C-alpha cells in the first residue's frame, strides 16, 4: 500500500490552529495594490477560517 503524501501547496497556504481550525490568508493582497484603495487593502489583512464546506477537502489534502 503506498504512503499518503500531503499536498505541499495546500500546506503552504493554510495553517491548522491548536483547536484544529484551518485558517488562511485573504486573497487579493499580493500585487496591483496601487490601484486598490487603502480601506480595501486594510480589509484584506489578517487570517480567516476556511469555509465549512471546504474544510473536509482541505483536511484530506493535508492528510488529517
Layout of helices and strands:
Layout: H1 8-13, E1 14-16, E2 22-25, H2 38-43, E3 47-49, H3 55-62
Antiparallel strand pairs: 1-2, 2-3
Family: Belongs to the bacterial ribosomal protein bL35 family.
Organism: Paractinoplanes bogorensis
Pfam family, one: Ribosomal_L35p
Characterize the structure shown.
- The chain has 64 residues and is an alpha+beta fold.
- The protein has one domain (8-25, 36-62).
- It is built from three helices and three strands.
- The protein has helices spanning 8-13, 38-43, 55-62, and strands spanning 14-16, 22-25, 47-49.
- It has a three-stranded antiparallel beta sheet with strand order 1-2-3.
- 2% of the residues are buried.
- The mean pLDDT is 95.
- It holds the Pfam family Ribosomal_L35p.
- Keywords: Ribonucleoprotein, Ribosomal protein.
- Belongs to the bacterial ribosomal protein bL35 family.
Short description:
With 64 residues, the chain is of the alpha+beta class.
The total of beta strands comes to 3
Tell me the helix content.
25-40%
Give the helix/strand class.
alpha+beta
Which residue ranges are poorly predicted, with pLDDT under 50 across at least 5 consecutive positions? none
Number of helical segments?
Answer: 3
Largest sheet: 3 strands, antiparallel
Largest beta sheet: strand ordering: 1-2-3
Strand residue content: 15-25%
List the main descriptive attributes of the protein structure presented here.
64 residues, alpha+beta, 3-stranded antiparallel β-sheet, 31% helix
